[in-house]
Amino acid sequence: MKQITSVLEGTGSTVLLLLRSLSFVGTLPRQWARFIEQCYLIGYTTLPIVAILSFFLGTVLALEAGYSMQDFGAKEFIGSLVGLAMARELGPMMTSVLLAGRVGSAITAELASMTVYHEVDALTTMNIPPAKILVLPRLAAVVVMMPVLIIIANITGWFGGSVVARYTSYIGISSESYFAALRHYTKFKDVMNGAAKAEVFGFVVVLVCCNIGLNTRGGPREIGAAVTRAVVLSLILILILDYFVTKVLL
Amino acid sequence: MATETMDASRSKTRNPFTGAEADAVSVRAEALSKKFGALSVLRNVSFEVTPGEIFVIMGPSGSGKSVLLRQIAGLDTPTSGKVAVDNLDPSLEETRDRVRLALVFQEGALFNSLSVYDNLALYPREHRSGDEKAIREKVMHALKILSVEKSAGQFPSELSGGMKKRVAIARALVMEPQLLLYDEPTSELDPVMAATISEIIATLKQEYSVTSMVVTHDRSLALTISNRVGILMAGKLVTVCTPDDLRKSQDPRIVDFLNPKIDIEHPRFKGLETKDDP
After folding, report:
1. Beta-carbon neighbour count of residue B248 at 10 Å?
2. B83 CB near a chain A CB, below 8 Å?
3. Exposure pattern of B122-150 as b/e (b: 16+ CB <10 Å)?
4. What is the DSSP letter of B149?
5. In the predicted model, is pLDDT for residue A177 greater than 50?
6. Residue A98 CA, distance from chain mean position
7. How are beta strands B54-58 and B228-233 bridged, if at all?
8. What's the pLDDT tens digit per position in A9-30?
9. CA distance B32 to chain A (A)
């Protein structure tokens, strides 16, 4: 019973935080500096790790696909498999998982420490709503930066697959054939579906992490616990949402 | 009736930046109680702070002083009873729109990611009170009042405890408050710095007539700066009186609190002798 109450409380406070943040959308132009700072933190600093991860995701996909497909002469479809898998599923999901681990944890740690050390209380007494200056710029930044991260993830993943397809002895298909298959089977709609998924995942990750950070009570020990809770919950939500969003987009 | 009397005798606060006068505000707590689960932290606390007064709440650690201050600042809501700032509920956003209320937190609660200057400039920027030049003048003036203008470019992590407290008071001052709340303003400070902070609080009251509430267990601060003192013990307000009456009080609880005696024969000190003693 206590757990159900806690889930309902968490859901309620997250929705309220979202509504409260959205009520300040009109103030975004005046928060340009905060928005750019968050774009830098969410987008620019995450970009290298997203690119590295996606590159190797593409290489592993090509490697496994080449190994499985060589027996029935379907190696020329490796490009289409890597292309579709990256665009529709692995790109958005792995980027969101990275976002939860890297950005989500940092957001929760920062907001939780601000809460524990009364900085959030200070904002409240100054009549500056935390939802306005701490949450809204982060939500806006993730909406803008997620498609950028997805495009980079897709491109590096596709490229990683092409390198493996070209230079692995038991695959050995040219980059032209690889990209021809990729272009033929991976449509613009697939890329857009992936980007839409990533938007949903990224938005939920940032919102949940902000909410957990702002509702942290206690001392420094609770900051660590809040970060763990935020990351675990984000990962669970990404997987659950993945099923439902995929079903809607199919 | 009580409200009418209060309004009639209402004093004015003087804006430290413009010199403009505004009505000082009152604070009233009626049968205020606060519980955390089964733990009763405040029990039936009632008092009134008149406009322009410095009201000090004293009490031993854990007596509920800071919890009381959080109720008045509107950061927490009481379990039962009522708290009103200028006859308004302080936990409502509309009240904070109408009454400028500033709280100086025990640890300062400065924004660690912002410089001292930006800490002070945040409020006027967010509330669009003037252009950047006017904000700069106001911030530097507040820093100057607290003698910390040289620290404008520093970050809170680079400041000492006393400097942080002064910056926190300067940040409160920038808000042009009608009600100024201090939570343990002299804790963790050396006697010289504690005296400086006491002097600053008294000067701010004298110069600008801001209604002030100070929560402290610092006896000398309370008796020096206050108009009236309330003693809070185990969540109950045992007395409200002037500093002179407090000094003369024969109530054993107050006498013990103001003049604590350490009984080294008490069982709790047994066994603390060092083994090396001849």
Report:
1. 9
2. no
3. bbbbbeeeeeeeebbebbebbbebbebbe
4. G
5. yes
6. 6
7. parallel
8. 999 999 999 999 999 999 999 9
9. 20
Longest dimension (CA), chain A: 69
Instruction: Tell me which of B275 and A197 has the higher pLDDT.
Output: A197
Per-residue pLDDT band at B251 (split at 50, 70, 90): confident
Position B1 scores a pLDDT of 35
Closest CA to B115 of B159, B146, B169: B159
Distance from CA of A41 to the nearest CA of B (A): 14
Q: From the CA of A127, how many Å to the nearest CA of chain B?
A: 6
Contact A116, A220 (CB under 8 A): yes
Give percent of chain B above pLDDT 70: 87
H or E element, residue B137: helix B132-145
Whether residues A119 and B111 touch (CB distance < 8 A) is answered with yes
Out of B93, B101, B107, the one facing A118 most closely (by C-beta) is B107
pTM of the model: 0.86
Show residues of chain A in contact with B69, CB under 8 Å: none
Query: How far from A115 is each of A165, A230, B101, B212, B246, CA to CA, in Å?
Result: 51, 15, 20, 25, 37
Enter the tokens of residue A102.
């890297």
Please give the Cα distance from A72 to B115 (Å, whole number). Answer: 65
Q: Does residue B122 belong to the interface with chain A, where contact is any CB pair within 8 Å?
A: yes
B50: left (phi over 0), alpha (psi -120 to 50) or beta: beta
The residue of chain B nearest to residue A120, with distances taken between CA atoms, is B109
Structure confidence by residue, pLDDT tens digits, B84-105:
999 999 999 888 888 889 999 9
Reading the block at residue B121, the tokens are 């400039």
Take residue B278 and report the two structure tokens written for it: 């001849």
**Which residues contact residue A164 at a Cβ distance below 8 angstroms, ignoring those fewer than 6 apart?**
A58, A59, A62, A63, A66, A171
The single residue listed with the structure tokens 């069982």 is B267
B110 and A133 in contact by Cβ < 8 A?
no
CB contact under 8 A, B75 and A133: no
The DSSP 8-state label assigned to residue B92 in this structure reads S
Per the model's pLDDT, the better-predicted residue between A73 and A121 turns out to be A121
- Please tell me the distance from the alpha carbon of residue B222 to that of residue B209, in angstroms, as a whole number: 18
What does the pLDDT read at residue B55?
94
What is the three-class DSSP state of B12?
Answer: strand
Cβ contact B147:B182 at 8 Å: no
pLDDT digits (tens, 9 = 90+) for B189-220: 788 878 888 888 888 777 777 899 999 988 88
Cβ of A74 under 8 Å from any chain B Cβ? no
- Residue B159, chain A, CB below 8 Å: the answer is no
Mutate to test the interface with A, among B123, B129, B165 (most CBs of A within 10 A): B123
ipTM value, please give it.
0.83
Q: How far apart are CA B138 and CA A145, in angstroms?
A: 37
Interchain CB contact of A127 with B (< 8 Å): yes
